[in-house]
């Protein structure tokens, strides 16, 4: 059996070597390149392809892969918003993702960023770096004094809620598909509008599917409290970034942490040191004291990377054997 993996990064190699040791009967080929119509032929002769990328898996890409005989596609990440599922269905693909590699990793990052915003660590660190050790005016706010609105209560949102409870924050939540336990706890508000009206800070944990496109926009921001804090570690397309920038400019949004950006492909996980950003908006956001930009690293922990590799390769083997792994995507 042969599995071919795309976009393998150096930091994934220890996990991959470990997986190969445990599966000596499987031949693994890989490249650092991403799966595109051009690189699809690298997988020729393989039973399954393992991929990780934020580029779109278009009909053209999937067709190119099918043409070299590979119709099993295992994603090493959770988001499936970049797959053309109509094409995948038409071409007879099997697809899996890794829905639970480490919800803690992402939840933790979001809450670290929220606490950093509240305690104003970015301007404070900048002062300390300049040897200015005065307190004022960098006074912080306490987590337990905040009502935090959690949008999306799947695996990651629920971990975030646990962290918030540990801080003593008041949590309110919204999800189209409420979780029974949280419902019994009375955490849910009836509508997003209710959440916007009550929350001092709002953090998002929903997928970047079309119906969530620009969930946070001019109108929704207008419904929020003055001085609301926003956190997005989920998908860039959940926010109309221009509306968020307008909110920051007017003070309606007091602070903002973003780990994802609608235009992040080709921008994040690249070294721009000594160069100008191709996108002036990102330069503007990074320059602000009250904005924390991280380049899609919420997931990026040793535990998560290990799980992403192991679970996706296991699923690729299952598909190759004609089985349906538990993490197969239904479409
Ligand atoms: C995901 O798992 O979907 C992420 O956002 C992480 C990233 C490696 C794509």
From TrEMBL:
<dbReference type="InterPro" id="IPR006140">
    <property type="entry name" value="D-isomer_DH_NAD-bd"/>
</dbReference>
<keyword id="KW-0520">NAD</keyword>
<comment type="similarity">
    <text>Belongs to the D-isomer specific 2-hydroxyacid dehydrogenase family.</text>
</comment>
<dbReference type="Pfam" id="PF00389">
    <property type="entry name" value="2-Hacid_dh"/>
</dbReference>
<dbReference type="InterPro" id="IPR006139">
    <property type="entry name" value="D-isomer_2_OHA_DH_cat_dom"/>
</dbReference>
<dbReference type="GO" id="GO:0008720">
    <property type="term" value="F:D-lactate dehydrogenase (NAD+) activity"/>
</dbReference>
<dbReference type="InterPro" id="IPR029753">
    <property type="entry name" value="D-isomer_DH_CS"/>
</dbReference>
<protein>
    <submittedName>
        <fullName>Lactate dehydrogenase or related 2-hydroxyacid dehydrogenase (LdhA)</fullName>
        <ecNumber>1.1.1.28</ecNumber>
    </submittedName>
</protein>
<dbReference type="InterPro" id="IPR036291">
    <property type="entry name" value="NAD(P)-bd_dom_sf"/>
</dbReference>
<keyword id="KW-0560">Oxidoreductase</keyword>
<feature type="domain" description="D-isomer specific 2-hydroxyacid dehydrogenase catalytic">
    <location>
        <begin position="8"/>
        <end position="329"/>
    </location>
</feature>
<feature type="domain" description="D-isomer specific 2-hydroxyacid dehydrogenase NAD-binding">
    <location>
        <begin position="114"/>
        <end position="298"/>
    </location>
</feature>
<dbReference type="InterPro" id="IPR029752">
    <property type="entry name" value="D-isomer_DH_CS1"/>
</dbReference>
<dbReference type="InterPro" id="IPR058205">
    <property type="entry name" value="D-LDH-like"/>
</dbReference>
<dbReference type="Pfam" id="PF02826">
    <property type="entry name" value="2-Hacid_dh_C"/>
</dbReference>
């Amino acid at each position: 059996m042969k599995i071919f993996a795309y976009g393998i990064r150096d930091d994934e190699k220890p996990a991959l070597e470990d997986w190969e040791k445990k599966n000596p009967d499987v031949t693994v080929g890989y490249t650092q390149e991403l799966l595109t119509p051009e690189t699809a032929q690298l997988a020729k002769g393989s039973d399954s392809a393992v991929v990780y990328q934020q580029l779109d898996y278009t009909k053209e890409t999937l067709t190119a892969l099918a043409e070299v005989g590979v119709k099993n596609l295992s994603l090493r990440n959770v988001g499936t918003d970049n797959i053309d599922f109509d094409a995948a269905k038409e071409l007879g693909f099997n697809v899996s993702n890794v829905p639970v590699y480490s919800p803690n990793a992402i939840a933790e990052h979001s809450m670290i960023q929220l606490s950093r915003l509240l305690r104003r660590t970015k301007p404070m660190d900048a002062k300390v770096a300049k040897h200015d050790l005065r307190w004022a005016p960098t006074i912080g706010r306490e987590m337990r004094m905040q009502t935090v609105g959690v949008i999306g209560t799947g695996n990651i949102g629920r971990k975030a809620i646990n962290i918030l409870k540990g801080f003593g924050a008041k949590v309110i939540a919204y999800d189209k598909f409420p979780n029974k336990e949280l419902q019994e706890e009375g955490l849910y508000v009836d509508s997003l509008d209710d959440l916007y009206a009550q929350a001092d800070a709002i953090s998002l944990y929903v997928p970047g599917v079309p119906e969530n496109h620009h969930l946070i926009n001019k109108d929704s921001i207008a419904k929020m409290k003055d001085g609301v804090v926003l956190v997005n570690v989920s998908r860039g397309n959940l926010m109309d970034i221009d509306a968020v920038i307008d909110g920051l400019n007017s003070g309606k949004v007091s602070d903002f942490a973003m780990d994802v950006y609608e235009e992040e492909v080709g921008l994040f996980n690249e070294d721009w040191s000594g160069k100008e950003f191709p996108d002036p908006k990102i330069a503007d956001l990074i320059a602000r004291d009250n904005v924390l930009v991280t380049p899609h690293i919420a997931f990026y922990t040793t535990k998560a990377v290990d799980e992403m590799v192991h679970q996706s390769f296991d699923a690729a083997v299952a598909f190759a054997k004609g089985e349906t792994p538990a993490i197969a995507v239904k479409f």
